[in-house]
Design brief:
This protein has about 130 residues and is mainly alpha-helical. It has helices spanning about 20, 45-50, 60-65, 75-85, 90-95, 105-120, 130, and strands at about 25-30, 35-40.
Length: about 130
């Protein structure tokens, strides 16, 4: 989910020679409209887009940009806290519980995906293949 937890980057941080080639991956940064961010969530989805759009030449640059401007854990916790007061202690509760040792199974991911599609409707159109390997 690196693509969603970024502070963004400037056009100058992209090597000039590859800017035209990676333009389909760029979008306005969610947190700072003066910056850019990749329009993909992680290396797996980026890899699929690279293959679909025949951009293998730019693979390294695209994947490197996923790590530019990443928010640290304190910034992520602060952002969650700002969303709703009940989320202020989320990080502390997570770290002090057994939840931190849990991993989702394929069945759990499938159930969550199905429920999200039910609740969000057509606004959530991510394929299950993205979440389950």
């Amino acid at each position: 989910m690196a693509g969603s937890i970024t502070r963004g980057f400037t056009e100058e941080q992209i090597p000039e020679a590859v800017r035209p080639g990676i333009a389909p991956f760029l979008g306005i940064c969610l947190r700072d409209p003066t910056k850019l961010q990749l329009a993909t969530l992680n290396t797996e989805t980026a890899g699929k887009l690279i293959e679909e759009r025949n951009l293998e030449l730019y693979r390294a640059e695209i994947l490197n940009l996923l790590n530019v401007g990443l928010m640290n854990s304190a910034e992520v916790a602060e952002e969650f806290s700002a969303l709703h007061p009940a989320l202020r202690n989320l990080t502390q509760v997570y770290r002090s519980s057994r939840l931190k040792n849990c991993q989702l199974t394929t069945v759990g991911i499938t159930l969550a995906h199905t429920n999200l599609r039910r609740v969000a409707g057509e606004s959530f159109d991510a394929d299950l293949e993205i979440w389950v390997n």
